[in-house]
Design a protein that fits this description.
The chain folds into 2 domains: 3-199, L-asparaginase, N-terminal domain (Rossmann fold); 221-333, Rossmann fold, CATH 3.40.50.40. The protein contains 10 helices and 14 strands. It starts with a helix and ends with a helix. The strands form 3 sheets. Strands 2-1-3-4-5-6-9-10 form an 8-stranded mixed β-sheet, sandwiched between helices. The protein has a 4-stranded parallel β-sheet with strand order 11-12-13-14, with helices on both faces. Strands 7-8 form a two-stranded antiparallel sheet. The radius of gyration is 21 Å and the shape is globular. It is an alpha/beta fold. The structure holds glutamic acid (GLU).
Length: 334
């Protein structure tokens, strides 16, 4: 018998949060279904015939559609992942997650956890009973990635559609295709199937400590989407409800009508940081291109889209980072 066949398969912790990968549908061809309708136990029971080369330890954390993801589940998830990171028996961690906000959870974990053993988020675009369901293939791929030594030191990853993305790049870019995710601006970092895994580059964060402390709570930070003909009232409304930070999902290079920029400048003057991102997917938002950030006191989101810019700004504020130059440095790093 070979040494390989004697080796114990890697033990992976599977933390379930719900989403379409745990979605129940009444019809294999109908369009409607309930995300998070199935328990983690039922979701994983479909794996029995897949002959996966890993021992899976299942632990449900939540059973929700990820549109309802927020502080309570994040807090519970973070604690579970931390414990698993410290447990030498656990080789890697898989988090099943709805696709709507998977990028936000992945990035939040990326900012607040050491880049140690693999943490792989996985979801599905089609519920389990639907014709052409993608959940089990995505899960088999996630097992492959989470048990692979070269997944160490990369921070949280998202595995969908035979593709591996880094947390800081990944974005949902389609509402219903099974290859719904893209990596902005760096693209995917690997291709994966249940039997192959090809990394496009080496891990760059081996041994990296957590960048920010896990907070007691996250502050209210809102995303304001700019549109032609809008006025400044929404900015005032956000300040009136006590927003501690504002992310502008701006036009083009993070732009907005002059009256909106002036109102946002007032927010900055009142101690509420404003980050300019773009409602456009591709390209960076750089400082002082068309909007004079130096004069307005704004921060440019650089490579981060609005959803992830909001996560970073919440984490920074919660960690007491309020100096605008420091905030800009954090966004420069992404
Ligand atoms: N809105 C649901 C969620 O994000 C379904 C989308 C999905 O998982 O693909 O959980």
């Amino acid at each position: 018998m070979s040494a390989k066949s004697n080796a114990r398969p890697p033990r992976l912790l599977v933390l379930g949060t719900g989403g379409t990968i745990a979605g129940s549908t009444a019809s294999a061809t109908g369009g409607s279904y309930a995300a998070g309708g199935l328990s983690l136990e039922v979701t994983l029971s479909d794996l029995a015939g897949l002959d996966l080369a890993a021992e899976l330890i299942a632990k449900p954390v939540a059973q929700i559609g990820s549109q309802d993801m927020g502080w309570e589940v994040w807090d519970a998830l973070h604690k579970e992942v931390r414990m698993a990171q410290d447990d030498p028996e656990i080789a890697g961690i898989i988090v099943t997650h709805g696709t709507d906000t998977a990028e936000e959870t992945a990035y939040l974990l990326d900012l607040t956890l050491a880049a140690g053993k693999p943490i792989v988020l996985v979801g599905a675009m089609r519920p389990a009973g639907a014709v052409g369901a993608d959940g089990m293939r995505n899960f088999a791929n996630a097992v492959h990635v989470a048990s692979h030594p070269d997944a160490n030191g990369r921070g949280p990853l998202l595995v969908m559609g035979d593709t591996v993305f880094a947390a800081k790049d990944v974005r949902k870019a389609a509402t219903s295709n099974i290859d719904a995710f893209k990596g902005y601006p760096r693209g995917p970092i690997a291709r994966v199937t249940p039997s192959s895994l090809d990394w496009f580059g080496g891990a760059t964060r081996i041994g990296e400590a957590a960048r920010y402390a896990w907070p007691e709570a996250l502050p209210r930070v809102a995303i304001l989407t700019a549109g032609a003909g809008m006025d400044a009232e929404p900015v005032r409304a956000l300040l009136n409800i006590g927003c501690k930070g504002i992310v502008l999902a701006g036009l083009g290079q993070g732009n907005a009508p002059g009256s909106v920029l002036n109102a946002l400048n007032q927010a900055v003057e009142n101690g509420v940081p404003v980050v300019r991102s773009s409602r456009v997917d591709e390209g960076l938002v750089d400082r002082n291109v068309e909007v004079d950030d130096n004069a307005y006191g704004f921060v440019a989101a650089r490579a981060l889209g609005p959803a992830k810019a909001r996560i970073l700004l919440m984490v920074l504020i919660a960690n007491g980072v309020t100096d605008l130059n420091e905030i800009q440095s954090a966004f420069d790093r992404g």
